[in-house]
## 1
Amino acid sequence: MLEFTHDTLPQRVLFGAGSAARNLRAEVERLGGDRLMLIAAEADRALADVVAREIAPTLVWSDVAQHVPIETAAIARSAAAEADVDLVVSVGGGSTTGLAKAIALESGVRIVAVPTTYAGSEATNVWGLTEAARKTTGVDDRVLPVSVIYDAELTTSLPIELSVASGLNGIAHCVDSLWAPRTDPINAALAGEGIRALAAGLRVVVADPAGIPGREKTQYGAYLAAVAFASAGSGLHHKICHVLGGTYNLPHAQTHAVMLPYVAAFNLDSAPDASRRLGAAFDSGDGLAGLAELYADLNAPRSLRDLDFDEARIPEAVEIALPAIPTSNPRQADAAALTALLTAAWKGAPLDEVRSV
């Protein structure tokens, strides 16, 4: 008998290459925003100016940092309150969206998100803040952007290496959705289609970095991945990556890209339905083999050592992560297992090393 509960988040999505400025103006008018705060990291300011050329921000903010330090959030919140902001427009990647969410979490201000990477944060009601080298995440509908504007042209300046890592972060959302605490058949269907779109799109992006079709497909897949993740919740993969990012300030997308195949190798033999779905998404008899083939095609990041993570910190990372691992994980993840998993990921070891732990 099929029985489950599924939540679908209310959000408006506008998708179209070259349409960001026009769609943003239309959304601002529709929402009746009068006092706008435009958030964009300094590196994205020129891009944000193009996107926002048809609106008139009251406040432009560029103090953005990955993993959203609580001090950075506090300053931005104060500035938004002082300017009496009634709508926040974020233009950029997950860190930029995350800062907008930090403001909304306290004030309830509405967000229009214009993503320039494949992070997916724009389509979730998940927030994250880092304080004293500890990243805390939560779920609150106030942080869900009311509108998301996708424009593949905005991603063409994203370097290939970061495009690959960001897209693999999207695939990690999909894979984690197959065994997260609230997984259901709708999440699994979205995740499967998300993996197909992301894998196909990323291969085209690598072959034709300046082309729009591959980036459109990747953006579409990233949205599906985020919707699945928002409903299914955070699984083993994300709990580990939140520690690696928040505590050790490892780069977000690259960390997810490195950890994904190791978490998949650890779990898949104990999750036959997820294994079948992953294999089907990769059109492969073995989902892990399909994932490994994609990594080879994309020349993807392979080890935590390459991200300058210190092997000596693994015991500490295990101690921090262990209490957050969901009991619903298909395979028991105790301290010894997590240590072996992180050690293999640090070395860039063959996946079978984790599979046989």
## 2
Amino acid sequence: MRDSHRERAAGHRVWPLYVGGFLGPYGSTMVTPMVHEVAAGLDSTPQTAAAAVSAYMLPFAALMLVSGTLAERWGRRRVLRAALAAFVVATALCAAAPTMELFLTARALQGATNAFTTPLLVAAISDLVAGARLAKALSWFAAAQAAGQGLSPLFSGVGAALDWRLAFLVPGLCGLLLVCFPPSRSATLRATTARASWRSLANRQLALACAVSFLAYLAAVGLTVLAVLRLNDRFALGPVGIGLAASAFGIAGIAAAPPTGRLLRTRGPRYTGLVTDVAMVVGLLCAALGTSLPVVVAGIVLVGAAVTGLRSATNALAVTGVPDNRGGAASLALSAQFFGGAVAATVWLPVYHALGDRGFALVAVVPVLSAVVLTLTGAVGGRSANPPARDLTAVRPRGR
């Protein structure tokens, strides 16, 4: 009875963690549908404005190589509060930037500050929510990330139709909400008193999580970038129409959370990853080759749902593989994920411009490769590579 009460109470403390999960991916794609408006507003070129995606993603991914372990050592709550405050400042600087140089600098600061929030949120959830409930919690966190990635083009597109600076209102308000109502102290306690170790991160299960994370975002961000271009090129949609179509990604990610949680709980992360890789292949081919708008949107929906599954699976593999340094493990897996996103535009834009729809369809090779990796490494890490529900949390949380 006491455990049930504790888990219900824990559920009430988790909501700021999900809001924080929304912010990281939101920032990665929010500039994509409004590059022309940003360029015009700052007397620059669309090509330069498009660099705002990489300006955010590269420091975001690079700092996550170390941010999780450092924050575990410095204290999760202290680091989260400082990083969230810095994120609000960086977002305000983006909205107020008078030149492209200052805008890109502020975008880099946005990415750098978020590097010290997102992995800690995954670690906090895995310590706060015990047993079979962890699968559900991780799937909802993945849904929050999908919502951030998928809904940002809609909000940005609507904002850009009035003034591109308004697009920064949503992440700014979310960040301010978390500054005022941060996760509770109990939600950010570590489940172990052992010092977070760098050496513990060198294990094969975490390497598998990192590889699948990289491939998942290489494909997912490839979809979001190329879908924007194809929706404009083939169907002549403007920023608002593109934003509405792209929002299907986030909506599908949210809707996929309950079935993903059940699949993760009953069949484990490896099986969940394989199923969602197949869904991603189908979705990418529909989005790339569909001759009608409904088929393209259906493809976006499938990929959005699949990404929630892949994020859930890789986060579960990461945090269960390194129970004494969950922040560091989540940090590395998420770093790989966002490195995949950071290089996606560089990899896929030339292919799309050279081959058109066939170049877009080539993105479907990536989830095929991910499925091969999961299949060939099925026994990696022993039982924990595909743990049943009761093993998803190896260390139960305790107060200090």
## 3
Amino acid sequence: MRLPLAFRAAILASATLLPFSAIAQAEPHEPQSNSPAEVAQQLPAELVDAIARDLKLTPQQYIERAEAAQRLAGYAQTLREGSPATYAGSWMGVDGVPVVAVTTTAEAQRVARDGYATHLAAVSAKDLEGSLAEVNKWILGLPKDVSSQINSSSIDVLENRVVIDVVNSPIGRALNLPTLLAGLKVVLSPGGQPPVDPHAQGGDTYITTPRPIARDIDPGEIGVCSFGFNAVDAAGAPYNLSAGHCDPSQENAKVPSGAPVYLPDFADVTRSTQIGAFRHSAMGEAAGGLDYSVIKLNEAGTAAGLDKPTVRGANGTTVTVTGTARPVIGAPICKSGQTSTFTCGMVLADSVDAPLHMADGSTRLVRGFAGSTCTLGGDSGGAILTGTRALGITSGSNSGGAPNCTEANLVLAPEGGTASIGIPIEKIVNHANATLGLDLQVRAGNARP
């Protein structure tokens, strides 16, 4: 199961979509207790290889840039709250330098005094968001055969304008809307497989069905997704946070809530171990544009290892989650999924909208951040990290139907390479807690093993 999203790497950057009051978040949780050099030294060798291969960075540079992006996020949030008429977005440059865009010279001088590179823009992020909201209303009001030709809409911070990505089809061309091409980003699949921890972790496979698995079950009823981040509520009960569209009840209104979730037995799927069930899932405008699910784990789930702050790293290694983070344009990221395993890239846009067409004929608008990581079918729900912090949950990509990342990058290179949409983890937690009253928190541990 995955979000069937036709999304190209056409968006270079974007600002947030909603008014600040609607998306205000706390500072990133659990700051790093160790220095970047100390954290970098504890990264598994295979993860270091993935960072060098996909990002061309040293481990210390990877950690330093991830942490610098979070400091930028906090600064930009304060600036936007205090100066909404002049704030125009922020991002990490390709050289790792944090940049803040503003609309006046006076504001640029103030930002520069605070130690940030500046960029002058003509339109504030707030005004661009208003324009984008009108565009999205127009898209959702189109007939389905027309709206299906619109891949995504976003705000390009670097160009300071709204961008609509349209399918290169007769209908798409008839709309006469602008599209952009991003720079080429090649991501290769991980190589050989060393010994791995057999316990289940974020990024590993789970399957789900509308009803309990039995010998007569139709294979078409079995959905495949990836575990996201492990979480715990105020009472100590264990959960896993994954993608909303992985819940069968989201695909079919006739399916009751609480569908079972299993660790698959690949030799005989009917012997798969149930490790919990969907406690809640939410998608689209009713969920603030999010796409997430809350899986309540049972004793078999905790025994399988889903009560630990861990994510499956490169070549099957383990990464300990040390806190949460917010998406910042240009920040380095790595994602873990059951199909494409561990791939790295960067945040292309901190907010992008895409229409999701459901099996019942309805259309839901999904809102998340865009990344350049390769993501394949079955990776939905998997964990996205920046540094060793939890950043988001994989929702969909433009390469879901590809057999592997190598072919995906070759085919998509003319269109800017692979791109995926992630749902910010802090927004997921905030929405889930407001809805369920569980006081969920992402499990986090010390950066040291």
